[in-house]
Sequence to fold (225 residues):
Amino acid sequence: MRYYPVNLDIKGRQCLVVGGGRVGSRKVDTLVQCGAVVTVVSAEVSPAVKQLADEKAILLKQRAYRASDVEGMFLVIGATDNETLNRQINADAERLNLLCNIADRPEICNFILPAIVRRGSFVMAISTAGKSPAFAKHVRKRLETQFGPEYGLMLELMGAIRSKLLAGAHEPEVHKPLFEQLIDGDLVALIKDQQIDRIDQLLEKVLGPGYRYQQLMPSNQQPQE
Fold:
């Protein structure tokens, strides 16, 4: 296996995107969603990138790339259509032992980005080791039809339950069978079908009194009766 699967915590970390076109815009959007401190360097930028800059969500340097732009960065992404420039970005990042991805050029990356299905905190990553992004996209689309928003809601509920159990001085190792019972009770289907009464019945059966969906979940993430 060539690649080591990993999820990176980039919240608050300095990340650079060189290139502000269509591809760069997608990279910037994902980085911002993950809480990164994003700098974009590009002479020309898409309206989406310009809007993010206007909203102070990113720092935009609307000029040509300089080798010094990678200094102080945690992660670097090259998203230009200039092969020579892409290779220069990679070389500059490698010199400083930085994480570097060049869009659609796995041979000059030290990490690659998978296709992603995201449902709140529930994230599935699909990788073909850079051999066929088109196939990864195909699989992503199929998974998107199979896994709806109820999976993200279930994870929010599980997290709220876990926090409450820990606050009650429960030992973490005893939680596993409780969560397994909730999953085996088809909790995700109950959330999908918005069956609040049955959700509460299942919670009480497994966890005891004091665990109710509407008390545990934020109001904007509750199914409507």
Notes: The two ends are 48 Å apart (CA to CA). The chain has nine helices and seven strands.
